[in-house]
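As the work plan foresaw, the team has encoded backbone shapes as discrete tokens. One protein thus recorded appears below exactly as we store it.

:::
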Amino acid sequence: MSVLLMILKLVAALLVILPLIYISIKYGGNRLQNMQNGNYMKILERLTLTKENSLLIIKIGEKAYVFSSSGSKLEILMELEPEELKKIQESKKVTQYKDFNEFYRNFKGKLNIHSKNELLKKLKDKFRVKDK
């Protein structure tokens, strides 16, 4: 009898905890992400060289710097020119599409494809799929 009672308590606790976790992640996740993105400092790029050493590009205000990070110290290697900073930020932008049709048209335009059959043929050729 006590085992059945413990199982019922466990199920009841899960029925309370799981929705709370879901709500916390759904509504609190954006706030947590915004807290992690600093207003004045942002790590744009990180390149790990060894287990303890890495290079970082950090934007502080309107300027960007290349930092060397090791286990015990962090030092500025150089300041980036505004043009270099602009290039880095442009390369990191992800294209946003309104809907799938816009994405598909853009994709077709890049591949010079004018029909679905042409697209299928190019994909089959690329992935070496043979017709049955």
